[in-house]
Known about the structure:
Number of strands: 27
Number of helices: 27
Radius of gyration: 75 Å
Low-confidence stretches: 1-19, 184-189, 473-479, 684-751, 753-821, 916-968
Distance between the termini: 156 Å
Largest sheet: 10 strands, mixed
Structural class: alpha+beta
Shape: elongated
Bound molecules: adenosine-5'-diphosphate, magnesium ion
Amino acid sequence: MNRQAKGKTPRRPPPKKTSNNQKDPVGVYCRVRPLGADDEECCIEVISNTTIQLHAPDGLKANRNGEFKETQYSFKKVFGIKTTQRELFEDVAKPLVEDLIHCKNGLLFTYGVTGSGKTHTMTGSPGQGGLLPRSLDMIFNSIGPYQAKRYVFKPDDKNGMEVQNQVDALLDRQKRDSQSTVPKTPTTRRIDPEFADMISPEDACRADGVDEDSSYSVFVSYIEIYNNYIYDLLEETPFDPIKPKPPQSKILREDQNHNMYVAGCTEVEVKSTEEAFEVFWRGQKKRRIANTQLNRESSRSHSVFIVKLAQAPLDADGDNVLQDKNQVNVSQLCLVDLAGSERTSRTRAEGNRLREAGNINQSLMTLRTCIEVLRENQMCGTNKMVPYRDSKVTHLFKNYFDGEGKVRMVVCVNPKADDYEETLLVMRFAEMTQEVEVARPVDRPICGFTAGRRQRNQAFKDELTRRLEERGGPVDGEFPTVLNQLLQSFPPLPPCEVSGPNDDVTLPRLIEALEKRHRIRQMMIAEYNKTANMLKSVLQEQDSNNLSKENFIHEQRGKLGEKDKMIQNQKNEIDRLEKKSKMLEYKIDILQKTTNIYEEDKRSLQHELESREQRLQREMSEKRRMESRMQGIVTDAKLKWEKECERRVNAKQLEMQNKLWVKDEKLKQLKAIVTEGKTENRQPQRPSREKDKVPPKRSASPSPVPSPYNGSQSSLSSLEPIYNFSQTVRPDPHFPRPGSVSVASCISEWEQGVPQSRRQGSQSPPDSRKRAQGLPDSLSRRRGRCWAREVPVQPADVDLEETDHWTGAPVRPLHRRSHSAGGERWVDHKPSSNVELDTVLQANIPKAIKVNAPNEKALSKCDKYLLTHQEVASDGEIQTKLIKGDVFKTRGGGQAVQFTDIETLKQENPVVASSRKRRSSESGPDGEPMEGDWTDVETRCSVALEMRAGSNLGPGYQHHGYSKRRKP
Ligand code: ADP
Ligand code: MG
């Protein structure tokens, strides 16, 4: 019968990714080897047992613009130059071996540039065994006594493991023995001298918790990946020294559990450290030979040593391996010595070698890429495809990263400065690798048999051997005591001595005794058999009872284990959740703080907003107030300016009328002159007639008063004297007027009644009497006008000459009203053209007769005259002058006013004042004198009175003590 059980590999990823969500990061260790020579520059400093610091070499610093780069790298552990191989093994590989024995997979690789100590770390040197020999040693130290017989476990060619029955295994063993010259088990340590003394006996260590009720077998394979080809280093090929066959490359396949394996790869079952070692060494030698033959560089290939541990539980007897393929577990530990990680340029490789080097680099590149993508997927939750298939190395180890297991990497570094740049890259890769997580392998379920089967079986076997030994032992000695006692319970034999040939007593007695004994014996045997059978049945019952109980206990244990696991898982979950909740609390805390800060900000901003709004409101109201104030000011100013304009228009009107009058007057004079020449011998025209010819308008227009002194001046320069007149002198009627023209004197004479001859010549001679005593209406009116012109403005006025005679002497003392008679009575003359100013200071005259224009009636009743005169002062402001005068009775029966005093009231706009002041001394923009210049008080007075042209005012209106400003 060839019953075979096919084992299932533990690497099999569960069909649906199981609930195993526990992950461990790839453990990355750093080993710093000692410098090759003491005088070499060192670029690595071990800072702590987890951190190293890289110092950029001086030359490099200079090359990089003095950029001083000091970087620290942290690892799970850093091993300094003094670290022994044993220490390294204890930390790095021992847990992996323990895992292997407990059915869990492991991957351990060394990474670094060539010469950094990868091989030294993995394989070791004589006297300093590396991780590989130590791992093998530990495995055999742990499972040594529990190993299955050779060929009980048999790998199939599809990465599975079969269990052979004892007979097939025995046959296979016999076949091997007959084929091989090698002794079955090496009795002495026949170790290659190159490989000798790797592990000293005191370094031996073993794993705890090895399942004694299982049977184990170790299989090793050794492959090399060179130039992305896989070579089996343990393949037995008939060696042809004449024409050596190049090694055949192997391919990678995926088994039914989606695990990658090297198809057709030799798996050698080894039973001891030494044997395993020997196999490894065989492969190593083959590798060297191939490298030499094919001119390859060993540093350019990856070597992978795979230790497979098959284990299956013993059967219920604890005698043989359970023939159940489902109970076979295979775990494996891959020990990888990667190719040097340096860049191609460093090796100065050429041609084929360069291409190969490129491929090597390519595979390491792929490894880096895979790690990167894995890391990204894990950290960012992405699902990018990891390019395992891009190189054989990564493809082979795909399951470790995809499935479950423990991955560890020893980063080897040579601290020499020459390696700095390469080392930097190595460090970066190492740091990144640490961030990748691999699913933690789960515990395998245990079979349902009683624990301690092996021991019980052993004990039974021992007892059997002992008994057998006992049975075959004391042949001629005494019976064992039990038998003796048994024999003693038989009836004693009668004396058997025969007395003679005729002794008939002894023999029959003996026969009888023997027969008796025989009967007893028969009885005893029957009894014994009965008892034995009974006992046997009891025992069997007990046994089955026991078994069922044991089974029950085992079941319970299994359940307990499951429960324990569940509890553990839940505990882990709780831990995780607690951590998460702590994290979240912390986050909440931070968020709260942030919120507080924002709220604070918000409050302050709101506050600011409010204050700004208030300010805005204040400013708005201020603005409104300002607006209303400005509006008030504007309306005020507008009103004022309107008034001012009105006033100025009036003034201008007056001026224009004045001018018109002057022109008229001149025209008249010219006419008179012209006509005088013609009618020299004729009687002069009555002035009254002349007056009649004056258009009615003229009575309204003020007539500038010609100066008695400048009377001789030409009429063409009539305007000139206005400005040239410097002072006003009280007109003296007796003072001869130098400028009197003949026409005027003629008229004067005529009016005074002398010479008679002239009067005769007139067409309608006036009544001399009337003339002597009083003035004819027309004339007196004319005189009034003339008086008004008392302030000399217009020279060479015929009328003036005439008038001057008349106005000659106001008789003051005679016509002065008595103050005692009811006090002074005033005529308060305010021309209607006056602008109403809000003057506070106002002339307040009690009992005054207020008039818009002076009239005879009012004057006759009063003895004081007050003219409120407005004019534009030199600074442009309206100036109010209160011109006071005394009223006299003229001889002709009329009234005359003699000005005696001027009071000036002046308002000033503080704003306009300054500009006005400036302007006052200047001429207008077109060089014309300002309009106010001629509207002086005299003129105005005269105007005021002139407007009364038709009144009976007598001569005598005079100005006193008033000096007129001379114009430039
Ligand atoms: P790699 O395999 O990385 O190219 P090796 O392991 O071959 O480097 O080491 C190169 C040399 O350095 C070897 O001679 C080795 O003995 C030595 N060496 C490496 N690491 C150490 C160490 N930790 N202690 C002593 N010697 C070492
Ligand atoms: Mg090496």
